[in-house]
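hey
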């Protein structure tokens, strides 16, 4: 009887020790993760400060005119009535394809309405059509 109590006590103490060690390992692991996140946050803040500084220097009119003079570029500011398109050629091509497909759909719908008018003359019942704007 004593040996079974001693064995069960040893198993209980061992299980309790394993749970304690596992908890301590998790605490250390979480501390390392916290340190990594703090380090990443500091790096991001430094990068943000650097980018804000560069943005402010790039946007200053004095710096822009200096760069334009250095590279001897013939840029001119657009007037208020001009529209400046900054999209890439790839985006422009996509827009052209989309507009041409819309025009094809309009042409097809106009053809189908003409055919429907002709067919309605010969049909005995009325036709239901959905109208699009």
């Amino acid at each position: 009887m004593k040996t079974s109590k001693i064995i069960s006590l040893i198993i209980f103490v061992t299980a309790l020790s394993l749970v304690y060690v596992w908890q301590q390992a998790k605490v250390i692991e979480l501390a390392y993760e916290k340190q990594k996140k703090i380090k990443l946050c500091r790096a991001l803040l430094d990068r943000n400060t650097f980018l804000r500084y560069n943005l402010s220097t790039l946007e200053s009119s004095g710096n822009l005119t200096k760069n334009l003079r250095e590279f001897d570029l013939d840029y001119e500011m657009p007037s208020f009535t001009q529209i400046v398109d900054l999209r890439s050629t790839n985006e422009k091509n996509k827009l052209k394809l989309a507009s041409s497909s819309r025009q094809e759909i309009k042409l097809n719908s106009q053809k189908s309405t003409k055919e429907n008018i002709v067919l309605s003359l010969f049909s005995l019942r009325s036709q239901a059509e959905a109208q699009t704007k």
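The helical segments are 2-59, 61-71, 89-122. Residues 1-73 form one domain.
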